[in-house]
Amino acid sequence: MFGNRLKTLRKEKDLTQAQLANILKTSASAIGMYEQNRRTPDTETLQTLSNYFNVSVDYLIGKTEIRESAEQLLEDKSVTIALHNKNGIDDELPDEAKKEIENFIEYVKHKYKK
């Protein structure tokens, strides 16, 4: 999962493995191994990738289909409205959108659970 997502994100930015390796201060072969799921990056590298591609670490590692971090989503007024109306998700929304809202609510609950 991680490797596929990394490759997709890299290609979306029109980067070669060598260019991404340069950004991460690693080797092109390391990027290739990540993309083939033959090697797992450390936490610091995951965070660097998350920041560079502007996606959440959870998205990178396949825990969610939501690309944005909780902070990014909360900046979006439509998501904020949906969260305030969590008891009655709009029936006019497609099922996929409803599921994304429900997943996001669970993600935020889990993230801030103490």
From TrEMBL:
InterPro entries: Cro/C1-type_HTH (IPR001387), Lambda_DNA-bd_dom_sf (IPR010982). Transmembrane segments: none annotated. Residues 6-60 form the HTH cro/C1-type domain. SUPFAM superfamilies: lambda repressor-like DNA-binding domains. It holds the Pfam family HTH_3. Gene3D superfamilies: lambda repressor-like DNA-binding domains. This is DNA-binding protein. It comes from Clostridium perfringens (strain ATCC 13124 / DSM 756 / JCM 1290 / NCIMB 6125 / NCTC 8237 / Type A). The lineage of its organism: Bacteria, Bacillati, Bacillota, Clostridia, Eubacteriales.
